[in-house]
Amino acid sequence: DAGVTQSPTHLIKTRGQQVTLRCSPKSGHDTVSWYQQALGQGPQFIFQYYEEEERQRGNFPDRFSGHQFPNYSSELNVNALLLGDSALYLCASSLRAREAFFGQGTRLTVV
Amino acid sequence: RKEVEQDPGPFNVPEGATVAFNCTYSNSASQSFFWYRQDCRKEPKLLMSVYSSGNEDGRFTAQLNRASQYISLLIRDSKLSDSATYLCVVNSETSYDKVIFGPGTSLSVIP
To answer: B5: nearest CA in chain A?
Structure first.
């Protein structure tokens, strides 16, 4: 049983560009959450998707958007990248409010 | 006040020591609580759920005090392999699920 998979694992983008990160949840999980983790800090909740809709959102600007597909996989899009967007982006899947399982993350560097 | 707060750390302890981490949360409606462990540059992994009656898993004991909105994690007989960052996580099971991570407490077990 594959766990949560994210792609790509590493990414370098230029300030002002747009980026799309992808996540496939653990088999049987229907909820996908995205987090941003800056160096030395705990993960910060970006948003959560369930049944293809955004259910909850953290304190992130509209430049951060997402999507969930019928197969429960999800994408995170970030527009107009800033240097401060450089971080580890983590995807976690769960079955409703149960324990979340994380992917290995995508390390985004904005230069 | 932040929604989830943890001991600032870092904790540096000798092998075999007992160490306790504390976590407080602000939302009295929170229903689910977890401890995650995160190794350097890796994704967080579930260490244990925290139940109202308290629970133990080998050398690890988690306790919940709803009245004080306080969660603890006790590690007995520390091993070198316990060195990691420990994240307190709180879910608020309202109509929608929201997950909140604490900033984490770093533990280094020294030979």
So the answer is: A42
